[in-house]
Amino acid sequence: MAQLRGVEFCLEGDGTALARHVTAAPPDVVIECTVGDASRASWTVCRILSTQVDAPRRRIAMELTDWQATFDLDDRRVVAHLPGPWPLALDSLLRTTAQLFAIATGKALLFHGSSVVRDGVAYVFLGPSGAGKTTSALLSVEAGATILGEEYACVGGIGSGRPRAYTLPFRQRTGLLTEPQAHPLAALYWLQQAADDEVLHVSPSRQLTCAVRAVTIGVRHELLMEPAVDLCAALLRTVPVDVLRFRESREFWRAIEADRRGAGVAR
Amino acid sequence: MKPSDKPTRSDGVTARDIDEAFFIMDPRTSDLHSLNPVGARIWELVDGQRTVADIAAVIVAEYEVESGRAEGDVVEFLQTLQTKKLVDL
């Protein structure tokens, strides 16, 4: 999705996570990045210092402790600067680039959620902090699934009517790096911890509300929220969001399987 | 909230029809608020020029409801929107 210029040779440490996702496809966005020579003695939490949105010109300027950049949504160009050759800062910049341009190009949505693959199809788990997104992914491994992502779930192909869940070349919270994969999206679940495992079908308006709440929009502005809402609505016409009430055990997969059998969907 | 107050929409908050449902979008919180047709009409009438009483009068005329009840419902609805920081007074 992105072509990165100027930083590959400056990075210390592990930049190979990005190299493994290099494709021959034309980029959707070009990032031009300069790199300073500041060292970093100890890790500090990356903070956003300022965000400025120029809505008429569709440009967003962001300054964080770890990087600064201007994103031109129409020209699909990013001009950025890293204070030093910090791989984690580059990760942060690329994640933000992906969040903004996935929506701006209409190609994908990045959800704050986990995703797993089971029997060749992908399932995405959404919910507020503490809902069990990481837990459900880890429990899914016990039920025979593999993890696509623990922190972000990327769904593309929305306009085709055949959405797919993708891995992202970013380091997971646990340090996990995933191989590039894409799988047909089977279901989206909004998690609720409960005493029993159950799949609930909810109204279209509630589905849309849940889906939008889970999208990582990048910058909280109507410039991005409106297309994000449109993309969510388009996705939900093909793959709805169901509420998954679950106990903290892998047995919630029985509820998912029963629901999908009831809907006549092949596993 | 008084009948003479003139509510306005909060900055950045927009609204859309999506698949025959009406939503208010708040980018500050990424929240979508679903409104029924009467709520959607009241939102349409929140323009910083109309008072609460003006809005209630339109609802009375368009929905054939008793004016006292309409004013009470409009006030309650606008107070809910104000609590969610979707409208300002």
Describe this structure in words.
- The complex is a heterodimer of chains A (267) and B (89).
- By secondary structure, chain A is an alpha+beta fold.
- Helices cover 26% and strands 32% of the residues of chain A.
- Chain A folds into 2 domains: 2-105, no CATH class; 108-262, Phosphoenolpyruvate Carboxykinase, domain 3 (Alpha-Beta Complex), CATH 3.90.228.20.
- In chain A, a hairpin with a 3-residue loop joins strand 4 and strand 5 (68-72).
- In chain A, helix 4 (204-214) crosses helix 5.
- Chain B has helices at 37-45, 52-63, 67-83; strands at 8-9, 14-18, 21-26, 31-35, 87-88.
- Chain B has one domain: Coenzyme PQQ synthesis protein D (PqqD) (Arc Repressor Mutant, subunit A), CATH 1.10.10.
- In chain B, helix 1 crosses helix 2 and helix 2 (52-63) packs across helix 3 (67-83).
- With 89 residues, chain B is of the alpha+beta class.
- Chain B is 43% helix and 22% strand.
- The A-B interface holds A 204-206, 208-209, 212-213, 215, 217, 220-222, 224-226, 229-230, 233, 237 and B 12-14, 16, 18-19, 21, 23, 25, 27-34.
Task: Please supply descriptive tags for the structure shown above.
heterodimer, A: 267 residues, alpha+beta, 2 domains, 6-stranded mixed sheet, 5-stranded mixed barrel, 14 strands, 26% helix, globular, B: 89 residues, Arc Repressor Mutant, subunit A, 3-stranded antiparallel sheet, two-stranded antiparallel sheet, 3 helices, 5 strands
Write the SSE topology.
The complex is a heterodimer of chains A (267) and B (89).
Chain A: E1 2-5, H1 16-19, E2 29-35, E3 48-54, E4 59-64, E5 68-72, E6 77-82, H2 87-105, E7 108-118, E8 121-126, H3 133-142, E9 146-149, E10 152-156, E11 164-166, E12 182-193, E13 198-201, H4 204-214, H5 222-236, E14 241-246, H6 252-262
Parallel strand pairs in A: 1-2, 2-6, 8-12, 12-14
Antiparallel strand pairs in A: 3-4, 4-5, 5-6, 7-8, 7-9, 7-10, 10-11, 11-12, 13-14
Chain B: E1 8-9, E2 14-18, E3 21-26, E4 31-35, H1 37-45, H2 52-63, H3 67-83, E5 87-88
Antiparallel strand pairs in B: 1-5, 2-3, 3-4
Helix pairs in contact in B: 1-2, 2-3
